[in-house]
Amino acid sequence: MAYEMILAETHGPTAVIRLNRPKALNALCDQLMAELGEALRGYDADDAIFSIILTGSEKAFAAGADIKEMKDRVFPDVYLNDFIAKWEVVTTIRKPVIAAVAGFALGGGCELAMMCDFILAAENAKFGQPEINLGVIPGAGGTQRLTRAVGKAKAMELVLTGRFMDAAEAERAGLVSRIVPTETLLEEALKVGEKLASLSRPATAMAKEAVNRAFESTLAEGIRFERRLFQGLFATADQKEGMSAFAEKRPAQFTHG
Ligand code: CAA
């Protein structure tokens, strides 16, 4: 598929998908989201790729769902076609997906970033759920994922008032893993990609699955799930290699088996 609204390229073991609709601040229209889904699925199936970075421009990660595309839609269409259901593909990717966010991450843009495994923020990043100003509410998980990430008080204020958070506030609140200088955002994300490519694939995939389970289960069930995955990893060659390499004071060479 030839892409028109995203750029997709690989940097060694890391795929970089750049949202590329600059005139609309990367507003997430149906075509852009279809292209994003296709690219994500392709890289997830590609054995040469270990992780995926999702980024935008310096001005905008994404300014939300495309308001102009949505404005004349009516309930039966929105309900039956459920265009946002297609966005959920992001949450089905098994490899790590890192959101590298500079500029605006608003509405669906903030929700898309939160569907990724973690968010690296540039100093100029701005996060918000301003849908209330449009007479609607977040529709791609904002009321749920933001609340889990930053707690009720801050999520409720942002969703009710549409106020934006800058990168420093987002880091203090736990929405982003860390802040990096805007000009080195991609470089920093690629360093994470290099690190991930040096690790065991089964361990990485299970680590992601286990952390995500924390959002879907009780503590006791989550801990049982984690324990089984931990025990299961003792059936892998990578566990033998990783622990032997430590004991022998040498770097591990994982074979992903
Ligand atoms: N949808 C469609 N077009 C958008 C857009 C969006 N979400 N955000 C920006 N644009 C367009 C603008 O219409 C404008 O296009 P024109 O040049 O053709 O007029 C262009 O991008 C540049 O935008 P601005 O001139 O507004 O740029 P600015 O720097 O003055 O302001 C901004 C930047 C504060 C991000 C402002 O564009 C803005 O408020 N955007 C809308 C943010 C928003 O409400 N997002 C939520 C969308 S609803 C949603 O996401 C639902 C959901 O939960 C799934």
TrEMBL record:
Alphabetical keyword list: Fatty acid metabolism, Lipid metabolism, Lyase
GO molecular function, one term: 3-hydroxyacyl-CoA dehydratase activity
Catalytic activities: a 4-saturated-(3S)-3-hydroxyacyl-CoA = a (3E)-enoyl-CoA + H2O; a (3S)-3-hydroxyacyl-CoA = a (2E)-enoyl-CoA + H2O
One Pfam family per UniProt: ECH_1
PROSITE patterns, A to Z: ENOYL_COA_HYDRATASE
Domain of life: Bacteria
Example GO biological process: fatty acid beta-oxidation
CDD domains cross-referenced by the UniProt entry: crotonase-like
Top EC category: lyase
Keyword Kinase found: no
EC assignment: 4.2.1.17
NCBIfam families membership: PRK05862.1
Cited PANTHER family: ENOYL-COA HYDRATASE, MITOCHONDRIAL, ENOYL-COA HYDRATASE-RELATED
Protein function: Could possibly oxidize fatty acids using specific components.
Homology family: Belongs to the enoyl-CoA hydratase/isomerase family.
Name under which the protein is recorded: enoyl-CoA hydratase
Species of the source: Rhodovarius crocodyli
